[in-house]
Amino acid sequence: MKIQGHMFTWLAGFILLAAVVYGVWSKEPAGTTALFMAFALSIMIGYYLVFTARRVDTGAQDNKEADVADDAGELGFFSPHSWQPLSLGFGGAIAFLSIAIGWWLVFFAIPFIALGVFGWVFEYYRGADQNQ
Questions:
Q1: Rounded distance between C-alpha atoms, residue 120 and residue 110, angstroms
Q2: What's the rounded Cα separation, in Å, for the pair 9 and 51?
């Protein structure tokens, strides 16, 4: 993680330099603002990765002598039978369809999105899968 953090930090420095040069040269506020926001996002991600890398064990990507097999193992827990993404996808589709049809359609999408988010967050707080 340390390597990725330093890569984002270097990227942030490059974007800052590009933002300053672009802002002075073009005097165009929208692009300059977008570049400064890209700088801020890159520095936040880089700082988080470097900050986290100091507190976790050294990963295989930080070891110069590591093999691909050294990074194998469990990546995390992924819900195998969740229906909540279907509700979120349906609500998101209706919300994006409202851009083309009319903003009034967003009011029909909000219940699907709220139900999907609520169900996804509290999916393992009740029922048969409560202890996972």
A1: 15
A2: 12
Write out the H or E segment, with its range, that includes residue 14.
helix 2-26
pTM across the whole model: 0.55
Widest CA span in the chain: 62
Of the candidates 119, 96, 117, 122, which has an alpha carbon nearest to the alpha carbon of residue 108?
A: 96
Average pLDDT over residues 11-24: 97
Closest C-alpha to 37, from 53, 59, 22: 22
Distance, in Å, from the CA atom of 43 to the CA atom of 39, rounded to the nearest integer, reads: 6
Give the Cα-Cα-Cα angle 29, 35, 38 (nearest 5 degrees). 140
Mean pLDDT of 72-91: 83
Euclidean distance between CA atoms 10 and 48, whole angstroms? 14
